[in-house]
Amino acid sequence: MIHPRQWVEIRKEGLYLVPGQCYIDPIYPVHCAIITHAHTDHAHENHKKVIAHEDTVSIMQLRYGEECAQHFISLDYFHKISVNGINLYLLPAGHVLGSAQVVIEYSGYRIIISGDYKRSFDPTCPPFVVETCDVFITEATFSLPVFKHPPIEQEIDKLLSSVTAFPERCHLIGVYALGKCQRLIKTLRMMGYKKTIYLHGALKKLCDFYQLHGIDLGDLQLASELDLNSSKGTIVLSPPSALRDKWSRRFANVVIGMASGWMQIRARAKQKGIELPLIISDHADWPELTQTLLEVNPQEVWVTHGREEALVHYAIQNGYQAQALHLLGYEEQED
After folding, report:
1. How crowded is residue 215: how many other Cβ atoms within 10 Å of its Cβ?
2. Which of 26, 122, 124, 158 gets the most CB atoms within 10 Å of its CB?
3. How many CB atoms sit inside 10 A of residue 47's CB?
4. SS3 of the chain: helix, strand, coil, percent, to 5
5. 106-146, pLDDT tens digit by residue?
6. What is the pLDDT of residues 159-200, one digit of tens each?
7. Residue 31 and residue 21 in contact, taking contact as beta carbons nearer than 8 Å
8. How far apart are the C-alpha atoms of 75 and 14, rounded to whole Å?
């Protein structure tokens, strides 16, 4: 038996599996990339070969073009394949549509690379699946005890209450294009909001993709159809970068909102001029991170990116061997 420390390496491109001759979410083009999900900080173009969940492959092709990699291997969850002598399969990660944990079996060891994940309710993607392993490689984006995300229904209720209280204003909400946008829309629908929701053009392709994959988002229209009068009382979604640009000036007396886990930090919301902060995250908060470690129950915990030190300390205090990998290039923002 060869310990994973001898065959999992940290390289400038990212996490490298030596016997499999492949990388996990590399930040530069490589010969073989296993992609956990299609957010732009994890899924890059111009790899020679990409192995990913079939929805992630489709989203990468939608965003980057059909030929964004020379060769794709599309997998469904739980379907095991062999890559240069290592066994590999994917588990749902609960992050966005197509997001996956990567399970690697080699030399008598079993490691799970979580990718980005969450444990809270999301009607737009399969929930996180727990499996035990020897080494669990986890993200730590919100890995501080202060981060405890409220139920999404509570935050959507804040939005609906504001729409009721200010019927003459347009509610312009910043959302990330993949996952956050569709989750917010679907939850609005589940909570009874049947009116048209208006979209910045940059959000339309991915919403159409979700609709085609059986996730009903209701009536969506382009926000370009609105003006000062017709935008009163509406909900408009846009990428965060468009909240204050020229495009947004067409709307009536806007309430600017933002859906992000970082909105729990009041100073950040104030700095960005966010009137309606919505604490909605597609990442695990501190209770979910610690819950996951206890359920997966690995011998070792490796932390890839985020607030690494706090989670490493918690893991050691609870009897696990733990280390921070200090990978760079992965952020919560997806614009």
Report:
1. 17
2. 26
3. 25
4. 30, 25, 45
5. 999 999 999 999 999 999 999 999 999 999 999 999 999 99
6. 999 999 999 999 999 999 999 999 999 999 999 999 999 999
7. yes
8. 22
Cα distance between residue 56 and residue 51, in whole Å: 9
Over the Cα atoms of the chain, what is R_g? 20
Q: DSSP letter string over 11-46?
A: ETTEEEETTTTEEES-SS--S-EE-S--STTT--S-
Which residue type, as a one-letter code, is found at position 239? P
Residue whose structure tokens are 């809270």 = 120
Q: CB-side exposure of 313: number of CA atoms within 13 Å? A: 8
Phi-psi region of 185 (alpha: psi -120 to 50; beta: other; left: phi over 0): alpha
Alpha carbon separation from 300 to 24, 306, 323 (Å, rounded): 19, 18, 8
Structure tokens at 168: 């003459």
What CA–CA distance (Å, rounded) separates 139 from 311? 9
Question: Do residues 34 and 22 make contact, with C-beta atoms less than 8 angstroms apart?
Answer: yes
What confidence tier does 332 reach under pLDDT thresholds 50, 70, 90? Answer: low
Q: What is the pTM of this model?
A: 0.94
Tokens of 209: 């993709």
Say if CB 70 and CB 31 are below 8 A apart. Answer: no
Note the CATH number of domain 4-146+283-324.
3.60.15.10
CATH classification number, 152-278, choose in 3.40.50, 1.10.443, 3.30.470, 3.30.1660: 3.40.50
Residue 134's CB: how many other CB atoms inside 10 A? 16
**Is-contact 37 95, C-beta < 8 A?**
yes
Q: Count of CB atoms within 10 A of residue 195's CB?
A: 12
Cα 56 to Cα 46, 234, 268: the distances in Å are 15, 32, 31
Number of residues that make up the chain: 335
Domain coordinates in residue numbering, the chain: 4-146+283-324, 152-278
